[in-house]
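R.M. (postdoc): so does anyone remember the format we settled on? I'll just put the structure tokens first.
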């Protein structure tokens, strides 16, 4: 479905009593080169940082949900003042100092973590060979991963999933985690995307839902913000799902029964717009 403009989302947002915001990182909270203090074009800005401080002051907890590794999100959390995180698209849950792997349907006899199972089973090689010249490891960020294999390219995830199923590897799937800003002309003339090869049966949404259940938080206390189809999986477990403007292209991939709110602005500015809308609905008796 097309996204719902933030200006028209008042009735939906008025049903919330926000306490927690699941937030994607790259292309959502941060701008060019992963900087909190830059927009997508690299221009200096404080808007996302100021909105983050406002969220902390109001008691709106921010939980990072990203394709980044647990170690990367821990370090980001130290700088941003956040604690828990959902890493590697739900395959790794970070609770303070504890790390929990979510295997989904990955066979557990092929390694110490889902990423090893994806490689040792031949699932990674099948995708790289089946779409040679159109997809490759997303270097150098593909290193040190425990839950997913990180790739970049221009492929149809449904075609990749069909290829995997045809080779008896239907327990693995390829997920689109959004457009990359950098130019990779050797992969094709169109926009290059980041993809995660991960086990079926695990997702940002599933891990986020388990996390919320453990904390006793209902969907009406929670919102999410992102910029990709992978982020839209969260729409089913939160009371409001935001896409920043640079992710509006993904709105059509959402569940037709779940409104997706698109902010007027991109990345950090859009993130701040979502936070401002949520802060206006914070309980007044905190």
């Amino acid at each position: 479905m097309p996204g719902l403009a933030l200006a028209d989302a008042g009735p939906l947002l008025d049903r919330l009593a926000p306490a927690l915001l699941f937030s994607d990182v790259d292309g959502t909270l941060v701008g060019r080169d992963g900087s909190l203090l830059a927009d997508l074009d690299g221009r200096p800005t404080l808007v996302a940082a100021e909105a983050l401080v406002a969220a902390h002051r109001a008691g709106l907890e921010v939980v990072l949900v990203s394709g980044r590794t647990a170690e990367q999100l821990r370090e980001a959390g130290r700088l941003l003042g956040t604690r828990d995180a959902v890493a590697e698209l739900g395959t790794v849950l970070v609770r303070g100092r504890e790390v929990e792997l979510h295997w989904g349907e990955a066979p557990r006899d092929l390694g110490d973590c889902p990423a090893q199972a994806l490689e040792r089973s031949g699932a990674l090689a099948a995708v790289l060979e089946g779409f040679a010249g159109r997809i490759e490891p997303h270097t150098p960020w593909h290193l040190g991963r425990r839950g997913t294999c990180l790739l970049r390219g221009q492929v149809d995830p449904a075609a990749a999933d069909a290829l995997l199923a045809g080779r008896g590897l239907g327990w693995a799937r390829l997920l689109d985690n959004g457009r990359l800003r950098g130019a990779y002309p050797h992969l094709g003339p169109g926009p290059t995307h980041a993809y995660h090869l991960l086990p079926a049966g695990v997702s940002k949404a599933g891990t986020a839902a388990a996390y919320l259940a453990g904390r006793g938080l209902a969907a009406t206390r929670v919102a999410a913000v992102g910029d990709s189809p992978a982020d839209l999986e969260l729409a089913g477990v939160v009371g409001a799902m935001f896409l920043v403007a640079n992710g509006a292209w993904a709105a059509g991939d959402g569940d037709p029964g779940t409104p997706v709110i698109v902010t007027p602005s991109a990345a950090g500015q859009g993130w701040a717009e979502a936070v401002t809308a949520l802060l206006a609905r914070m309980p007044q008796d905190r």
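R.M.: ...and that's the designed sequence above, right after the tokens. Also worth knowing: The chain has a mean pLDDT of 94. Residues 267-279 form the longest helix (13 residues).
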